């Protein structure tokens, strides 16, 4: 099953990721937005993200292993952002 992001370009434009920025993706899913944020905010932008599916966290942790210093992924609900 393929995930088709809704309002992907609009979200990227609104966030306007830049080096040094700190970003949060509350529904990581397939990692499309996360990947674009990391790409546009290189080399020093950071990204935290959550997803309720632990497989998503495992997959994205492996996919973005080279960005481990810039990422923090949590198996949690976005509603827990204050705790995280």
Your description of this structure?
- The protein is an alpha/beta fold and 84 residues long.
- The protein is built from 3 helices and 3 strands, in the order αβαβαβ.
- It has helices spanning 8-15, 32-40, 54-63, and strands at 22-25, 46-51, 71-75.
- The protein has a 3-stranded parallel β-sheet with strand order 1-2-3, covered by helices on one side.
- Helix 1 runs parallel beside helix 2.
- The protein is globular and about 30 Å long.
Please supply descriptive tags for the structure shown above:
84 residues; alpha/beta; three-stranded parallel beta sheet; 3 strands; 32% helix
What is this structure's SSE topology?
Elements: H1 8-15, E1 22-25, H2 32-40, E2 46-51, H3 54-63, E3 71-75
Parallel strand pairs: 1-2, 2-3
Helix pairs in contact: 1-2
**Total number of helical segments?**
3
What gyration radius follows from the Cα positions, in whole Å?
Answer: 12 Å
Mean pLDDT: 93
Oligomer state of the chains in this structure: single chain
Overall geometric form: globular
Structural class: alpha/beta
Uncertain residue segments: none
The tally of strands reads 3
Percent in helix: 25-40%
Kindly report how far apart the N and C termini lie.
30 Å
Give me the strand/helix succession: HEHEHE
Strand order of the largest sheet: 1-2-3
Beta content: 15-25%
The major beta sheet can be summarized as: 3 strands, parallel
Summed up:
The protein has three helices and three strands. The protein is of the alpha/beta class. The relative contact order is 0.20.
């Amino acid at each position: 099953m393929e995930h088709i992001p809704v309002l992907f370009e609009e979200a990227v434009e609104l966030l306007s990721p830049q080096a040094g920025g700190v970003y949060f993706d509350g529904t990581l899913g397939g990692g499309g937005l996360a990947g674009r944020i990391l790409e546009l905010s290189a080399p020093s932008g950071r990204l935290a993200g959550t997803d309720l599916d632990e497989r998503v966290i495992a997959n994205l942790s492996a996919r973005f292993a080279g960005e481990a210093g810039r990422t923090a992924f949590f198996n949690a609900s976005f509603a827990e952002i204050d705790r995280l």
